[in-house]
User: Which sequence fits this backbone?
């Protein structure tokens, strides 16, 4: 596995509130501490994720937006954008793709992070697959080419080509990030998502650290000796 340099600007396309913290909060915390400006783009409002029979979708969406804002603040994220699609309702549409492209052209990230849409050995949430694939398509070729979404150009948003994408949740990662110095911030950010996680903080910590230790062990086979890590599949568009 390879390591990756800290970018100046990073954009995350996140399917649901809490997916970003679960997948790569240690990396985000590391980068913001080193000066990276980070934009979160939340695709859905997470308005279905509850077993509470008295909860409504409207109320849950409000709760999860507030939780996401608290988690982003813990991590030093500069800006959070909520697209507001319903949980389980993402589609690969021109509208959704256009929202992602608009923010790429506006924010101009050096690197984009999202969930890996490809799985061969296990199933994943439909929103995860669609968000990841639409984000990749937005990076290339759509955000690059002037004749795609010319209304952005008319608004003063010039084309932009994202050079690198990191995909979390991948079955075939090839990039590793040491998160031992930032795992406590990851835990604190995850704990902000009270509506989704156990109230047992020790249980959360145990789960997070087990996953991070497993990732570090995978990286150790490639010469890295980290204790806790996050791993990603790396796609490079600029050659």
Assistant:
């Amino acid at each position: 596995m390879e390591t990756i340099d800290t970018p100046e600007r990073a954009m995350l396309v996140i399917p649901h509130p809490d997916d970003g913290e679960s997948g790569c909060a240690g990396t985000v915390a590391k980068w913001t501490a080193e000066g990276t400006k980070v934009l979160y783009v939340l695709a859905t409002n997470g308005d279905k994720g509850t077993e509470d029979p008295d909860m409504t979708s409207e109320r849950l969406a409000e709760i999860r937006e507030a939780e996401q804002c608290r988690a982003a603040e813990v991590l030093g994220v500069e800006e959070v954008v909520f697209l507001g699609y319903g949980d389980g309702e993402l589609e690969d549409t021109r509208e959704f793709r256009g929202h992602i492209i608009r923010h790429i052209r506006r924010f101009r990230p050096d690197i984009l992070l999202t969930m890996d849409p490809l799985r061969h050995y296990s199933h994943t949430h439909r929103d995860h697959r669609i968000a990841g694939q639409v984000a990749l398509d937005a990076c290339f070729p759509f955000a690059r080419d002037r004749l795609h979404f010319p209304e952005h150009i008319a608004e003063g948003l010039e084309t932009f080509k994202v050079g690198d994408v990191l995909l979390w949740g991948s079955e075939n990662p090839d990039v590793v990030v040491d998160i031992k110095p930032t795992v406590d911030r990851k835990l604190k950010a995850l704990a902000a998502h009270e509506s989704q996680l156990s109230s047992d903080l020790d249980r959360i910590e145990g789960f997070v650290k087990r996953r991070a230790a497993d990732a570090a062990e995978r990286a150790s086979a490639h010469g890295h000796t980290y204790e806790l890590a996050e791993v990603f599949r790396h796609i490079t568009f600029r050659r």
